[in-house]
Amino acid sequence: MVVLETSEGRILLATDAENAPVTTRNFLAYIDSGFYDGLIFHRVISNFMIQTGGFGPDMEPRKPGEPIPNEADNGLSNRRGTIAMARTMSPHTASSQFFINVNDNGFLDHTAKTQDGWGYCVFGKVVEGMDVVDRIREKPTTGRAGHRDVPVEDVIIHRAYRTNEGADA
């Protein structure tokens, strides 16, 4: 279980090490190192998802570690409330950035081990705090530092850490 203490409230996440072991290990290493502390949700699309894990306030990039293999072929679907790894167009480029699906986004699911079919790896879900996610998704956005869909007002992760709370969820 992971807590994201954000400027909009608290989000509790459950990771799925059974179905996405490499991705979960990678995510928890970033959590344990404090990597996400002080980062912003830098991409917010109200009918799609909210994304974080790459930029601080004023769109200052934070350098991630090495990319990990894509585990999107794990059978998990990009449904509302799930967390998934962000990546470039290349399937095996996920590192630190992740997103929370605010709608069912099955079109992001794995369909084949091809460039276009790999999909985006789901590795957990929101257990508490979808009201916070929904507040973030409704934030007005703008273009900033060459990026689109950036909230006008920073939505900051003050602290991200592991907890045993809600482990039975």
Automatic annotation (TrEMBL):
Where is region (Disordered) located? 56-76
EC number(s) stated in the UniProt entry for this protein: 5.2.1.8
Q: Which domain of life is it from?
A: Bacteria
Q: Report if keyword Lyase is assigned.
A: no
One annotated GO biological process = protein folding
Provide the reaction this enzyme catalyses: [protein]-peptidylproline (omega=180) = [protein]-peptidylproline (omega=0)
Record flagged with keyword Isomerase: yes
- Which residue range or ranges hold the PPIase cyclophilin-type domain? 1-162
InterPro entries in the record: Cyclophilin-like_dom_sf, Cyclophilin-type_PPIase, Cyclophilin-type_PPIase_CS, Cyclophilin-type_PPIase_dom, E_coli_cyclophilin_A-like
Gene Ontology MF term list: peptidyl-prolyl cis-trans isomerase activity
Q: Which Gene3D superfamilies match?
A: Cyclophilin-like
The Swiss-Prot or TrEMBL record describes its family as follows:
Belongs to the cyclophilin-type PPIase family.
Q: What is this protein called?
A: Peptidyl-prolyl cis-trans isomerase
In its UniProt entry, the species of origin is given as Halovibrio salipaludis
